[in-house]
Amino acid sequence: MAMNRQTRRHLQKQGEMSADGAPIANRDRRGAAAGASPDTERAGPRQFVSEVKGELRKVVWPTKDEIVNYSVVVFVTIVVLTAMIAGLDYLTGEGVLRLFDVN
Length: 103
Fold this sequence. Notes:
The chain is mostly helical. The protein contains four helices and no strands.
């Protein structure tokens, strides 16, 4: 089978082709895609909530100063973009009115 270099490199990276270009035997990938076997028990609601709490403890939350700074940046950006769009809208409207001699 003729393949271009990009396809060959992709298959080698995935482990489906050896360095000399020979295909590697297909493996059963049913369990590998999920990360666990289907026989594994599901976590109950209590375990789920405790794991969520554990993950939330690992989060690095922003400080009050960072939140204020980010909020100011967002507000200024919104004001500037609103002014730009309003200005373009006004200029476009005036241009169309002058183009058709409505005034």
